[in-house]
Amino acid sequence: MLLVPCPNCGPRNAADMRYVGESGPRPDPNTATPAQWRDYLYTERNPAGLLRETWYCRSGCRTFFVVERDTTNNQFVHGPTRVTKLGGKA
Amino acid sequence: MARAKAAAAGVNPKAKASAKYSAFGLISRGATNTSWPRVWRDVPLKKTYDVVIVGGGVHGLACAYYLAANHGITNVAVLDKADLGSGGSGRNTAIVRSNYLTPEGVAFYDRSLDLYNTMAVDLNINVMFSRRGHMTLAHTDSALRTMRWRAEVNKLQDIDSSVIDPSEVKKLAPSLDVSDHARYPIVGALYHPPGGTIRHDAVVWGYARAADHHGVEMHQKTEVLDIVVEGGTGPEGKGAGGKVTGVRTSRGDISAPIVINCTAGWATLISDMAGVSLPISTRPLQAAVTEPVKVFLPTVVVSGSLHVYVSQTDRGELVFGASVDPFNTYNIRGSLEFTEELAGHVLELMPGISRMRLLRQWSGLCDMTPDYSPVMGITPVDGFLCDVGWGTYGFKAGPVSGEQMAAAIATGQTPTLIEPFSLSRFAKGDLVGEKGAAAVGH
Ligand SMILES: Cc1cc2nc3c(=O)[nH]c(=O)nc-3n(C[C@H](O)[C@H](O)[C@H](O)COP(=O)(O)OP(=O)(O)OC[C@H]3O[C@@H](n4cnc5c(N)ncnc54)[C@H](O)[C@@H]3O)c2cc1C
Ligand SMILES: [Zn+2]
Predict the structure, then answer these.
(1) What is the mean pLDDT of residues B391-418?
(2) What is the ipTM of this complex?
(3) Is B287 within the bounds of a domain?
(4) Helices (H), B274-357
(5) pLDDT score recorded for residue B17
(6) Contact A42 B370 (CB under 8 A)
(7) Is there a domain that residue A75 lies in?
């Protein structure tokens, strides 16, 4: 079981959350080319190590937040930080 | 004692790799317990090859075999950081089928089934291919609709695939609860008689042994640490526009004009070394097996809504699988949650097996793509090819992928069968959506 640290609810089972995915800047939809937009949609960094990722506290407080996790041992090393800006992967 | 001694003697590393298996040879060795010959040679790592294949799973080995057998390209090395078949190829639940959703997928996977059909003879090894039939249950009208769609796509390409009703489901698998008071009643199923199971280890060893006979080298415990690329637009001359010149490994540098990425769950780590980004995220898929009981389940049974699939081995164990864990990780520790959920869902389908005990559970890394189709062929780096994105469904694709990737390398052209799966489809937005046929891993 993975205990994900929600900024409001504290550590919660990953099953109570939705994994949104890797966090990163979203290109401006008004100026991005289709290829840039698709790169943003599909390409993953998928590191074996530190990953900045977004979770959504689905069954709890419904907050989006960002954490940093080591994907080789699933330890959370940074965060959580609430996502305040709307849109994108945070 | 005698047995222990023979086991300690093990295989003889000096012996020539075995020629051919025969019934007489297997029986006499089994009876006398003399040491078995090596299945593939153990040779020194050379400094240069025509083709280096990274990853010794079914995909890498099949590609090596077909390069040699179909195209006479034998100066080939397969490198694996661990042992052959220690990745997904030795961890999967060995279900094969071709009842996919897109015409591209159906044609592709069906070619693989053809190759599996003659594999025992082609590779001279018993792969225990059992075409016992494959049944995907529908619990809702919308699931049934997708199945009708799949059945029609399948029939158009001459694949034996049809929608059946609950009474026929009951006939095929009497242990299933088809009553309408189940929590998720079975309202029908997609039935695919040519699907079934195969012995995955035998497939891996068969390809390794046959490739070895053709002169291909397999190097285990040889980790690729970097890929050497020159002239690319990225950092260190890697990336688009560059050209591969070799690999650095834990056992020294190798030069090679062609490097193929067949590392499934580790695919992005390898492609990063060449400066190529992939639309792949790595997630674990868990599986479990019960104690053996008398055979009662004649077909493979899959339930998308309940996220579970089950088949019974010839030994009588039930093998279960599910969907991938819901977040990216390279950690393959199993979870109790998985077993709890699995047991609950299996009992929804087959209430009669509540007293059966699980023997063990395990997990393997899966390289998931956004459209549940693979990424095959050329990349923006010249000489660097990929055969990845196999997610939870890539074992069945091993033979056809090996065959087609070998053809791509030998001819320098992308064969039509794998053209739809090129990396460039993502930039073009030309996805091959197979989620409807592959979301539950198998
Ligand atoms: C539990 C489970 C059940 C499954 N069930 C099915 C099923 O029923 N049917 C089906 O069709 N598919 C199934 N799959 C998927 C299938 O197992 C895989 O898609 C398939 O085995 C991938 O084969 P491969 O040869 O590409 O990769 P793998 O067999 O994973 O081999 C990759 C190899 O690359 C090596 N490697 C990694 N990094 C390096 C490096 N740096 N240097 C050198 N070598 C490296 C690894 O050691 C590994 O041996 C299942 C998977 C799992 C985990
Ligand atoms: Zn919360």
Answers:
(1) 98
(2) 0.93
(3) yes
(4) 336-349
(5) 53
(6) yes
(7) yes
Q: Is the CB of B338 under 6 A from ligand 1?
A: no
Looking up tokens 């190097």 gives B219
CATH number at A13 reads 3.30.2270.10
Q: What is the CATH number of the domain that holds B184?
A: 3.30.9.10
Q: In this structure, is residue A74 part of a structural domain?
A: yes
Q: In terms of C-beta distances under 8 Å and separation of at least 24 residues, what long-range contacts does B138-146 make, across chains too?
A: B138/B186, B138/B187, B138/B188, B138/B189, B138/B190, B139/B184, B139/B185, B139/B186, B139/B187, B139/B303, B139/B305, B139/B306, B140/B187, B140/B305, B141/B187, B143/B187, B143/B304, B143/B305, B144/B187, B144/B188, B146/B101, B146/B436
Cα distance from A26 to chain B (closest Cα, Å)?
16
Domain span at A83: 1-24+47-90
Model pLDDT for residues B83-139, shown as the tens digit of each residue: 999 999 999 999 999 999 999 999 999 999 999 999 999 999 999 999 999 999 999
Q: Residue B56 class from Cβ within 10 Å (0-12 exposed, 13-18 middle, 19+ buried)?
A: buried
pLDDT at B5: 42
Whether B302 and B136 have beta carbons less than 8 Å apart is answered as: yes
**Nearest Cβ partner of B329 from A13, A45, A71?**
A71
CB B87 within 8 A of CB B54: no
Q: Does B433 touch chain A (CB under 8 A)?
A: no
Residue A67 lies in a domain: yes
pTM for the structure as a whole: 0.94
Residues B249-308 have pLDDT tens digits of 999 999 999 999 999 999 999 999 999 999 999 999 999 999 999 999 999 999 999 999
Q: Which two tokens stand for residue B135?
A: 């049944």
Instruction: Classify residue B80: in a domain, yes or no.
Output: no
Tokens at A44, concatenated: 């993953």
Contact, B211 vs B15, CB < 8 A? no
Q: What domain range is B325 assigned to?
A: 130-194+281-368
Which structure tokens are listed for B310? 């089950």
**Strands (DSSP E) found in B202-274:** 217-219, 224-230, 243-249, 252-255, 258-261
| Residue B368 near residue B324, CB atoms below 8 Å | yes
Q: Which residues of A touch B (CB under 8 A)?
A: 1-2, 13-15, 18-19, 21-22, 34-35, 38-39, 41-48, 51, 53, 71-74
Q: Is the pLDDT of residue B400 over 50?
A: yes
B235-244 burial, b at 16+ Cβ within 10 Å, e below that, comes to: eebbbeebeb
Query: In terms of C-beta density within 10 A (0-12 exposed, 13-18 middle, 19 or more buried), how is residue B305 classed?
Result: middle
Distance in Å, alpha carbon of B245 to nearest chain A alpha carbon: 24
Structure token pair of residue B378: 């050329």
Rounded distance between C-alpha atoms, residue A55 and residue A61, angstroms: 12
Look at residue B176 and tell me if it is in a domain: yes
Return the C-alpha torsion angle B402, B404, B410, B415, nearest 10.
-170
Q: Does residue B11 surpass a pLDDT of 70?
A: no
Residue B107 falls within a domain, yes or no? no
pLDDT, mean over chain B: 93
